[in-house]
Structures are given as C-alpha cells and as structure tokens.
C-alpha cells in the first residue's frame, strides 16, 4: 500500500517577514505571504496591538472578527518600537528578515530608525515594502476616503455609494503581496531586494480597469450604472415574481441562448439587439422586454432554467448564505481562546503546497520565543516586560 503523499512546503518556506503594518492592507498582504509558507512576525504595540483588535463586535474568545480575518499564520511580538530598547530589538529583527513591511505615515519609520535606508544599511538584500494612503502625501489613508477620491463611490450603486467591503485596502494588499514576490524572485536570481511602494489610491485607480480606460478614451465622466454594466447588456439584476436575480449574458452567443431559454427568439432576431453594441445603444428598450418576461416566474425557476441553457446567472445571496453554499470556502483552526474557529480560505492554491493553518495570534503570544531567537536573554526579556517595552500574552484559561 502506498503511503499518502505529504504536501509540499509552501514556496516561501524559509522566508522571514518583519511585519510592522496594521489594520487591513498590510496585514492582508502578510497573511498571503504566510499562506505561502513565510514566517511572518507581526510587531504590535504592547498596550493595544493592531487597531483591528478593538474593531468589534462581534468577538470570538475576546478577539475581534476583523482582526481574526487578517492575521492567521503569523507570530506576534508585542514591542514598543518607540522605546530605545524596543527600537533596537526591532532593528535586529529587520536585520535578519527577508522582507520588511510597514504602513506608518510618511516620515514615521525614519524617525523610529526603521526607514528603508537604515534597514538596508544593516540588511543590504532586504525587500522593504511601504504602504501609504496617498502617494507622496502625508495624509492618513482610510478606505472610505480613498473610495471617495478614487471614483469608486461615483460609479457604485445609486451613486454615491461605498463598496460594502474595504476594497481599496484589499487591492493594495494584493498589490503589495505581488510586488514583494516579484522583488524576492529578483533577489533569488542574483539581483537586489529593493524598495516596494504601494498606495491605496494607486491601487484603487488601477483597479478601475475598463471604467478608467473608457473615461480616458471618451473624455467623458463615468456614469453610475448601479447593478448594470456600462458596456455589456444584459448584465445586471432583474426582478422576478418573488425577488431579484442576476443575468450576465457577456457576448452575442450567450444573448441568443438567453432569448431561446425564455422563449423570446424574436429579441435575438431584432436588429437592434443582435450585437452587444446595439444592445448597449438600445438598453432601455431591451431591458423593458426582459423585465416583463422575468416578472412572470420566480427567481429560483429562472436561475434553474438559465443554468440549464448555459447562461451565466446567479442568486443574490447574503454573505453567510454564500459561505455556506460554497463547499470548501472555509476551514477550521483551534484558537487558544475562541476554540474551534471558522476562517475563510484565500482564493488560490499553489500546486500541492500547504502551509498548515495557524490561528491568528494573541497579542504578544510569541514575544519571549522571538526575543530568544533575536538573542535576548531571559533576564533581559523579563526586565523589558517589567518596563512595559514588551509584553507576553498570558496563558489562556481553560475553557
């Protein structure tokens, strides 16, 4: 009998990341790196830790859901980097790291002795990633303001509307992870590590893709289409007899399939609607015809019928409903205070590599272990803890 194959280690096994970021974009990027096998050391303030630890309810085992969503697979050291001794330990961590990532406001890292030039002085091959809100500006970057200033609110829903998740942070986190991987690859090929700079605003603007390009080509301001699409018709929500559902007929073949499935081949034969460009020009007339048909049956019946015809269609689900309807979208870890904890998987796999899931750490859960790895003796560690420079998480009480 053949023994089961052991999953390969993650492609970033052996890579250490010193993570000075907080809130969403940076922690999301470093969680991706942890998923790929990197040893991510999360540096947090001893008093309050990452801001998101307080962003609740809801909580599980005293930990905010927001924080839990972004920090699995990491080790936490609670360290006051503003204290001279804490700053020295932080620089020692940076000196042995392959990647350093921070999202301090401009100038803060330099004042703390953790800026790129200082870190590179002790670690010439380091990949150093800075995440900011607005490139070249000393302004705090929060998703809501970035969505406002990047055009997202202008084109979303019944304009202006905010996307229901901090999408600009997510985009910036993905961009940071991709750029860091590129810099690591260059370094592995004999080149330098170097500096990676990512901004929320730049990530948001690049994420506008076709909407931005259309505005540049036409010279006209983008228009909010709500749940419809500016350049593809029909591609939107429709009202059935008992609720709403989505149809996404993204090309002429799918439109013909849609018309056949609903018994309206005449619409496909209508010269106004035979091409996507025509359907865009005659949007209102076509949508009125389709709405009249869809109002005659329930959403479940329509989605079943359209699925069978190969027409992209979807039910409008709640978040919890969507997670429960997608097999394998979540997995469970054993958290030290919350117990069994369901988390959402990342949207990728890399071959048969698997980084065993480690639950999001408690504040300072690994402080003493990491201090020992950095050459700090037990007596010095105890003294630093007494002075409030570091903090070790207390052992969780039995549940």
TrEMBL record:
Source domain of life: Bacteria
Stored SUPFAM superfamilies: CoA-transferase family III (CaiB/BaiF)
Enzyme Commission designation: 2.8.3.19
Keywords associated with the record: Transferase
GO MF terms, alphabetically ordered: CoA-transferase activity
Pfam families: CoA_transf_3 (PF02515)
Coiled coil: none
PANTHER family xrefs: SUCCINATE--HYDROXYMETHYLGLUTARATE COA-TRANSFERASE
Name listed for the protein in its UniProt record: CoA:oxalate CoA-transferase
Annotated source species: Sphaerisporangium siamense
Organism lineage: Bacteria, Bacillati, Actinomycetota, Actinomycetes, Streptosporangiales
